[in-house]
Design goal:
mainly beta; 3% helix; Immunoglobulin-like; single chain; Pili_assmbl_chaperone_N; PapD-like_sf; signal; 243 residues; Fimbria/pilus periplasmic chaperone; nine-stranded mixed sheet; 22 strands
Length: 243
Amino acid sequence: MISLPLAAGRLLPVLAALLFPSPQLVAAQLGVSPTRIELTAAKPTAAVTLKNESGDRLVIQNSIVAWTREGKEDRYTPTKDLIVTPPIATVAPGGSQVLRVGLRRPVDPHRGLAYRLFVQEVPPPPKAGFAGVQIALRLSLPVLVQPAAPAPPRIVWSGAKRPDGGLEITARNEGSALLAVDELTIRGTAGRPQGRGPVSVFPGGRQSWVFPAEVLEAESETAHVRASTNAGVIESDVDVEMP
């Protein structure tokens, strides 16, 4: 389970503190488990547990949208493909709430589908005399629906030395389902994803990671990568293009 501040983004509390130099900044705490949901034809439902780790009652509104990516931009559209219950929940201090996510359409025979579950706090009225800033939650969890006949991931890897001496590894997804990459390592060193994490590589899309120069053995033009993904561990030897 992870514990997250109820905020629209990591920068929001910082920006609020800078823009509103008030004596009090309030952000509740919410534990979420799991942080990624996977559905199949054999398992069309899943449970997500929310734990209120704050001292206040929380009112949470839940919704699901279809998730696609155009270039580097995520796109969200309304959908009736899935349902989440309850759509609104009240969680007592220290209490828990189980959300049920269910598939309402048949799985696609060959293509994976992607959605996002949004967990949104409904802010309470400010308490009498409160002069601070209330920070409201908006968490977003990926919901991945596997095809009826899932195929092994088809990832094409490439590598290149960067002008600064670092190593850039790129994965191109030529498969039919989104690949969620939790971590990419070379010789035990984790790469830094380019863009926002966690990393999701859509079919036809690509993602790059940057590594320090020392992960590449001296005089070597090949890097052995190890990716921890929703499809299991993927390992490959990647040819590195030298400048």
